[in-house]
Amino acid sequence: MKQGFQIVMITTVLMVACCQSGIAQKKTGYKDPAAPVTSRINDLLSRMTLEEKVGQLSVLLGWDMYSKTGNAVKASEEFKKAIAEQHTGMLWATLRADPWTKKTLLTGLTPELAAKATNAIQKYAIENSRLNIPMLLAEECAHGHMAIGTTVFPTSIGQSSTWNPDLIREMAAAIAMEARLQGAHIGYGPVLDLAREPRWSRVEETYGEDPVLNSRMGEAMVRGFQGNNLKSGFNIASTLKHFTAYGVPEGGHNGGSVAVGTRELFQSYLPPFKAAVKAGALSVMTAYNSIDGIPCSANHFLLTDLLRKQWDFNGFVVSDLGSISGLVSNHQVASNATEGASMAINAGLDADLSGYGYGPALLDAFKKGLVSTSVLDTAVARVLRIKFEMGLFENPYVDVKKAAKTVRNDAHVALARKVASASLVLLKNKNNVLPLSRQLKKIAVIGPNADNIYNQLGDYTAPQDENAVVTVLEGIKAHAGKELEVQFAKGCAIRDTTSSGIAEAVALAKNSEVAVVVLGGSSARDFKTEYLNTGAAQVKATDAAVSDMESGEGYDRATLDLMGRQLELLQKIVNTGTPVVLVLIKGRPLNLNWAADHVDAIVDAWYPGQEGGNAIADVLFGKSNPAGRLPISIPKSVGQLPVYYNLKKPTNHSYVEVDGKPLYPFGYGLSYTSFEYSNLNIAVSGAQDNLVVKVKLEVKNTGKRDGDEVVQLYIVDKVSSVVTPVKQLKKFKRLSLKSGEQQVLEFELNADDLKLFNQQMNWVLEPGDFTLILGGSSDDVRLQRDFNVQ
């Protein structure tokens, strides 16, 4: 009898337990991976407090959220406090290392330790938050994950110089893999600002001056980052920067006012963002600037009407660092933090990169009725959607061993060299000085950028193991072998004029058969520079110790001249009579007038990344044939600005001192071989939205070397109801041709390629005549023909 009673009791307990388990499962429906994402979001939202919701929208600065002791890493007391008091749901730049964050090779994290750190952060957040919500971690990823031990690729201006979206997509996938394996979920990038103001400090972060080239590069980055499965463990969400028209500040002042009309906004500045959104981008970052008096971070038309209603964007919008607070302090359109927070979130800005733009201010705005429950829940839902779609509720952790093994692997280093080689632009090659003769016995390598690892990497770069970066000097030595003697002299600094080794460099050039002079600029930050709370450098003209830095966020220029005594160094070396090859490592177009007239050969490398030295040496010695093309025009004078190729009609006329043309136009670049275009055929069919214009031509390598040609197709709208550009890039293709090889190339234009934004502010295809131009640059007409649209 007793045994039977025990069986009944056990059965009853099991039934109650099962019942309770069922109730518990119903209560935590958001944890059910089989449930639809929308259902999981709604269920979780229904359980969250006001404070927890606001916390999900706060993106705190992440580098202080871990503590490191030897090889042990754990969540820091600051992070524990953020979870307890702010319920924060996102971090930014947790793995970032640079002078601003004060994370060095010693105090920062290797990829293995980075994976341990993000795992520790996730574990603490999940176990110590009421609803066990995982963290969302964002990192800077424009030309490599900005963390110690990752692969450093060329900066974006170099990436676009490849004119090869497929290659950039491959690069983006490698960056995403390295970031995700260390625990990141979002990559900030691509930067889609049009760079039409070269004095601006952030030109290096852009893809140049053209909306079509920017669009194709942006699409490639988004698809490479995100892949086809966010749960793959190798992909990250892409954040588009900076929405919008950020790259043309008046006077070149970073974050300054822009003067852009509505039609120009739609025709030039918005298309790259639209293309990237259509490619699937899951996040967008607002810009610091205002447009027509409305700050981008409080612009309802941009963030809601356009982005969501017209473009069907389904991701989340994040502020740039401190830009919500900037509504009060900078733009002065809000009287206090509460008002600024309400303006931003009501406009459609979901997440606050800073942690102080929303937080208490948003709580206050909600309690005062300035923000509705619907608006708040919508913003939170957009953030939670990414967490669910990435599978973070089921699998928030990463494999530490895999991170240690895979980040900066041999394949990624080889890819960095491939991208750098493809990005190099040959601007001049008098008497075929390049490639360098194999008969040379003595070569001089001279200049401040010839053997400086940080000067060739660009902004948003972490501290580096010196053995991981190949400088120009090292690349040349590796190619030289035993027969060629290579000697080096720095000559001068980038900016500092107080000391100089010009005499030593000149003597070295005199006794050499050729001098490779490596000049330009630098975005290399140092620990002496002071930084604003946005991370931009605070420039002081009276600094006693002058760093090389003349580019990078915050370093705007009044001129584009070579700084310091660089031009003096170049002139004295040229005067020795020794043939000179000028290699430029820099982040923006510089004044090359004297060099263009007097130097034998010029190679533009931008910031070529960790394999830049090998890539440059490959080109100098002819191992690779340069085929990079300029993504931005190089002016003769700042007095010409703006000098972008696709200006509105009428064409520029000459000044008293100089003509109106750039020194080197958009799309320009030379090769060690030659190409011939022929047999153009244009076939027009359909009308309006069904219009198809098929273009066919033949391209032949008529030289003695194998090489790549970048075929560029431009359109001129001959008569239009509104003023249109003098010409517009519409299609391009980089193709490889062996010596003597001929290839048939086809392009297809559709209605969208020929539409304009008319007087009624609508996109329309107007009937009429168009001129089609094919060539090797915006100023190189190889084939041209008119066609008519009925």
Give a verbal description of the structure.
- The protein is an alpha/beta fold.
- It has 3 domains: 32-405, Glycoside hydrolase, family 3, N-terminal domain (TIM Barrel, Alpha-Beta Barrel); 416-632, Glycoside hydrolase family 3 C-terminal domain (Rossmann fold), CATH 3.40.50; 675-789, Immunoglobulin-like (Sandwich), CATH 2.60.40.
- Helices cover 31% and strands 19% of the residues.
- The protein contains 23 helices and 29 strands.
- Strands 11-8-7-6-5-4-1-12 form an 8-stranded parallel beta sheet. A 6-stranded mixed beta sheet has the order 13-20-19-16-14-15, sandwiched between helices.
- Strand 17 and strand 18 form a beta hairpin.
- Helix 2 crosses helix 15 (373-389) and helix 18 (472-480) packs across helix 22 (612-620).
- The longest helix has 26 residues, at 2-27.
- It is globular and about 75 Å long.
- The protein starts with a helix and ends with a strand.
- 54% of the residues are buried.
- The model is unreliable at 1-25 (pLDDT under 50).
- Pfam families: Fn3-like (PF14310), Glyco_hydro_3 (PF00933), Glyco_hydro_3_C (PF01915).
- Residues 709-778 form the Fibronectin type III-like domain.
- Keywords: Glycosidase, Hydrolase.
Quick summary:
GO terms for molecular function: beta-glucosidase activity. The protein is 31% helix and 19% strand. With 790 residues, it is an alpha/beta fold.
